[in-house]
Amino acid sequence: MSRNLLERTLQHLNSQHLSKVCERYSLPSQPLHEKTLRDALLKALQNPQAFEDLQGTLTPFEHQMLWYIKLKGGTVNGWELVAHALCISDGPPEFTPIHLFTTGLRDIEANSYLYLLFQDLLIVPIDQQSSWLKGKRAGTDDFRVQADRRILDLLVPPPAAVPLTYQVPTVPHAAPTRHPVHLLIQLALLWRHMLHEGPIKITQQGQYPKTFLQGLERHLHLTSNQVEVLLNTMLHLGVLRVEDHQVRAVLDRFKVQLRRPLKEQFLDVVTGYLKLYGGDVRLVPYTWIIMRALSLLPGPVDLSIGLKTLEEGFLGAFLVSDNGRNHFEHPMQAHQITDTHWSHLELLGILEVNWEQNLLMPTEGLNWLESLTQVPDRSGPESVAPCMVIQTNFEVMVYLSMLAPEHLQVLLLMHITHMDPQTLTAEINKTSFLQGMEVLGSFEDALALLQQASLTPIASNVLGTLYGWAKRKAGNVLRSNVTLLEFPTREERDQHHETVGGYAEKVGQTRLLVKDQRRLPREWKSLDYQQPLSQHAMVIAENGEVQVRGTRDLITQALVERYLQETPTGTYQFKPDALRSGSLTPTQRKRFEHRLGGRLPGYVMALIDIHAGLTQPPICEEVMVFRHPRAQQLAEHPRLRVYLQEALAPTTYLISKEHQLGLQEALQELGLPPLSPQDLPASRLSTHLPMRELRNLLQEAIEHQRVVDLLHQVEPQNQGQPEAALRELLQPVELYQLQQQWHVVVRNLDGNAEHTIALKHIQGIKVS
Amino acid sequence: MIKDIKTEPQTVVAHQHLTLLELSDPADTQRVLKIPGLERLLVHQLSPFQLLFLPEAGTTLEDLLRRHNIPFTREET
C-alpha cells in the first residue's frame, strides 16, 4: 500500500466519488468503473506535475482552507476547520451531493463548507468511519482531517482574507482594559519571581503552598486561582519544571521562549492553557472555535446580544437535527464560556466581561490569534523600534503597541507599577535590575537592550547607577571545581608558587588556591570533596578523649580547631567553652557524628541540647533538710510522714519548699521546738549542753569579746501564739544570776541594742 | 586512654572539587554566612572575601543567593 495519503484513500472510494476526483485532476471521469478510474488516478498522481496543475485550479476559498491546514502542520480538527471557513466566507460553496467515502457525509451546514474539499480529496478525514461523517451524535471519534503533503508543500501564501464581522451594535466608550502583552509580561514577571525565590515545594497532592500563592497574589495583583493557571501553563510550556516535589524555573527554556515573536508566545500560552484547562483533550478545538466566534464581534457589545449572535450566527452552523429536534453538537455552546473558563479567558486576554454594564468585550488578543491563522509570512523578524522612555528618576513609560520580544526581556529589569491597554509604567530599582540580569546574563547585553529600547539616550545618572549595581554583581563570583593546596610550611608554599608560576593564588600562610583544573603530582595527597569524606576520621574513648586520624579534610580541621583542645598526649578533649557557647549547631554535630561513625557521648549531647535550648538548663533551688538520729522513726508519725518522704539518709530527709512551713507547724503541734530554714544545718551548733558548760562558753566569749551564734527560744508577743526559735549572731556582754536562773546580756552586732536571754532558753551555741 | 597516635607524614594535601564563592564586599560575606540552610554546604571560610562550599552546593547555593538578593556571576572552570 502506498505511503501517500491520496493513494491510500483511493482504495476506499466508490465509483461516483472516484469519478469526481478524476474530474478534479482533469482525467476522464466516465465510464463509472471503479478499477479503471482508480488506476487512472494512481498513474496520474505519480507525476508531480499533477499537483502543480492542481494548484492552479484552487479557488480562493480552497486556498485559504488548505493554507490553514498547512499552518496547523497538515492535520486539523474538522470542527476547527469549519470555524475557519465561517470566519473567511459568507456561506458554503454550492454542490450537488453524492455518496462520499464509504459512509456518506452528514448533512449539516457545517459539513457543507467542507463537502467539496472532501469530494475532491483536498482533505481526507483521519477516521472515515467517524460518526461525524455518519450523521450520528458526537462520540469519542477522531474528528481530525488532513491534507496530502504534496499538495501542501506546493502551496504559496494566499492573499489575506477579509474576516467576516457580525453586524451587532457596539457599545460606545466601552473598551477592554487588557492587552495580550499584559499576559506575557505577567508570565515573565512570575517566572522571574520563581527564579528569585528558588525551587518551591509542592504538596504530596501536587498543590502549591497557600502562603506562596498569597505572596504571588500581592506581587502580581492576581487571584490565587489565576496564579495557579499561569504557573501550570508555564509548566506545560516547559519554562518551569517539577523535580522531587519542587517547582523550579528553567532558565535556558525561558530564554528561548522569551525570544519568540510576541504573537507566537501568546499563541503558545493560549494553546497551552487550552490543553490544560479545555477539559477533555478532544474538546480543545471547541474552545478554540468559540474564541474564533468571539473574534467576529465588531467590538464591545451587550452581553446577551453578543452571546445570542454567536449562537445563532456562528455556532448555528453546527446545529444538527436529532429526531426533528435541533441542538448544538456537543459541546458547541456559547454558554460554555460563561462559566468555568470565563475568568481564565479574561486572564488570557481573550475577552473581558463587565458584569455591571452587561458588556462582552473582545480584546486585542483575539485579533492576535486571528492574525496567526492568516498571516502568510511568519518568518520575518518583528521590527525592533524603541518603545520606552527611561527618565532620570528611573521611571519608565512603555508604549505597548511598539513592544517587541527584546523589549519583553528589558521589562524583566524593571518593577512594573501600572499597565493599561496602551501603556505600561515601571521603575528600575536595584532588586528588579539584578533579578533581570539573572535572565539576561551579562551587563553589556542588558545595557544594549535598554539602549535599543529607549526612545531617548539614557541619562548619565541612570547609567552610572546601573554600572554600580552591575559591578557588585560582577564582583561576586561563583566557581565550581576549584582546588585548595595545603603545604606543610609557608616556605614550601612560596617555593612552589614561584616555581610553577602564578596560576594559583596565595591564601593565608600555607595555602594556594587553584581556580582551574590541573594535574597534580602523584605524591601529593588528594581529597575529593565529591566523595563522602573521612568517615571514622575521629575516634572517641570512654574518658571523652578524641583521636583524629588520617588526612584531615577542611571540615575536620574546622571541627578540631573550633571545638577541641589538644591534650599533652596528642589526643583531644572537647573545649568546655565551645560547648557552653552553644556554638555546636546541629549541622556541626552531624559533621562530628559522621566523622565519629556514631553518636557523640551522652554528656556532650546533654550539654549541646541544653545550650541549644532543646532541653531545660539544670535547676538549683534552696531546700530544707530534716535531720535527727531517729529520723526514720519520726517519719512514721502520722502527723509528720506526709512531709518526711524523701529520705537522703536514715537520719536525713529532704523537705521540699512547699512542705517546709507545714513541717514546722507539725513539729510545733507535737511540742518539738519548731525550726526555721536558716536553723539548718543545726549540727553546726553545739546543742543540749550542760548549763555549766554553756555558762563557761559564754564567759569565755565575753572575756575575749567573741561573737556567738545562738539558737534560742523567743517569748511569744501575744498569749496563745506558739513559741518560736530564733538563730542570730550576738555579742555577749555580761553574765548574771537572778532568782537562781542564769542570764546573759547580749548586744546586736551593730551595737545599737541590748537584751537579755535566759540560759535555759538557749538551745544551741557556737563561738566564732 | 588512647595511645600510639599516628602522625601524618608532612606532605601537600590537595582539597579538590570545591565550589568557591568570591565576594567583593566583606559585608556580603557576612550576609551569605547568615543565610539559613547554608551552613551545611559551607566547608571553610578562606578569607573575608572567599568562601568554600561542598561541590553539591551548586544549584542550591545559587537559589539561596538569589533568594537573599545577593547578586553573583557564575564562572565555569
Distinctive features:
heterodimer; A: 768 residues; alpha+beta; six-stranded antiparallel beta sheet; 30 helices; B: 77 residues; 4 strands
Radius of gyration of chain B: 16 Å
Ranges of chain B with pLDDT <50 over ≥5 residues?
1-9
Mean pLDDT over all positions of chain B: 82
Strand content of chain A: 15-25%
Distance between the termini of chain B: 47 Å
Topology of this structure?
The complex is a heterodimer of chains A (768) and B (77).
Chain A: H1 5-10, H2 15-24, H3 34-45, H4 49-57, H5 60-71, E1 75-77, H6 78-88, H7 109-119, E2 124-125, H8 131-134, E3 144-146, H9 149-154, H10 180-197, E4 200-201, H11 210-220, H12 224-237, E5 240-243, E6 246-249, H13 251-258, H14 262-277, H15 284-294, E7 301-302, H16 303-314, E8 319-322, E9 325-328, H17 342-348, E10 351-354, E11 359-362, H18 364-374, E12 388-390, E13 395-399, H19 405-411, E14 415-419, E15 423-427, H20 430-440, H21 443-453, H22 460-475, E16 477-486, H23 490-500, E17 504-507, E18 511-514, E19 525-528, E20 538-540, E21 546-548, H24 554-563, E22 564-566, E23 572-574, H25 576-580, H26 586-596, H27 602-612, E24 624-627, H28 631-634, E25 646-649, E26 652-655, H29 657-669, E27 686-687, H30 691-703, E28 708-714, E29 724-738, E30 741-748, E31 754-758, E32 762-767
Antiparallel strand pairs in A: 1-3, 2-3, 4-6, 5-6, 7-11, 8-9, 10-11, 12-13, 13-15, 14-15, 16-18, 17-18, 20-21, 22-23, 24-26, 25-26, 27-32, 28-29, 28-32, 29-30, 30-31
Chain B: E1 13-22, H1 26-33, E2 42-47, E3 50-53, H2 58-67, E4 73-75
Antiparallel strand pairs in B: 1-3, 2-3
Your description of this structure?
The complex is a heterodimer of chains A (about 775) and B (about 80). Chain A has about 775 residues and is α+β, with helices and mostly antiparallel strands. Chain A is built from 30 helices and 32 strands. A six-stranded antiparallel sheet of chain A has the order 27-32-28-29-30-31. In chain A, helix 6 packs parallel to helix 15 (about 285-295). The longest helix of chain A has 18 residues, at about 180-195. Mean pLDDT of chain A is about 80; it is low at about 135-140, about 325-330 and about 375-380. By secondary structure, chain B is α+β, with helices and mostly antiparallel strands. Chain B has helices at about 25-35, 60-65; strands at about 15-20, 40-45, 50-55, 75. In chain B, strand 2 and strand 3 form a beta hairpin. Chain B has a three-stranded antiparallel sheet, with no helix packed on it. Chain B is built from two helices and four strands; from the N terminus they run βαββαβ.
